[in-house]
Amino acid sequence: xxxxxxxxxxxxxxxxxxxxxxxxxxxxxxxxxxxxxxxxxxxxxxxxxxxxxxxxxxxxxxxxxxxxxxxxxxxxxxxxxxxxxxxxxxxxxxxxxxxxxxxxxxxxxxxxxxxxxxxxxxxxxxxxxxxxxxxxxxxxxxxxxxxxxxxxxxxxxxxxxxxxxxxxxxxxxxxxxxxxxxxxxxxxxxxxxxxxxxxxxxxxxxxxxxxxxxxxxxxxxxxx
Length: 224
What we know:
Elements: H1 2-30, H2 34-58, H3 65-102, H4 109-117, H5 141-194, H6 203-223
Helix pairs in contact: 2-3, 2-5, 3-5, 5-6
């Protein structure tokens, strides 16, 4: 019993240490950068969701191997579009907003007063200018960080909305349309290879027969 208690105490101590280390890591990386946390957690959410979607197709016994050969690449492509568009758009807008703040183009009244007082307005907007690296910055440091964090959250949120509701659906529909055309073309080519050349008819009649078969198959596929 004593050994069991010691083992449980050791496990509890290990879990506590790991949890403490995790909190320190999160605070260090995201404590003063909530926009970065939104981008990373959103991207992680898309990754986990995409893995679940692909897994649902892979392990579904009710889906035939022929259907899986089409659906699995489709799901993987959708996952790549979802993840990349979310990360690129959201992170780009977050960085754009952060740059506006650091160069002084986007500022509060207190930041503007600081720039005017230190004769820095002529440098505002220049790419190599950073408000936080100027002398005498410490009096407005807390205000600046709060404002920058707020801008990060807003721009990250706007980026996620644009990605999820505008860009991603357009890209997915475009890809799905191309895949559909490729699939129909492969079906027609497969049927062409399987058509027997009937004896006793001309090559022109044979081509008409093949064309009629393709047309019928294409309309059926589209209705599906």
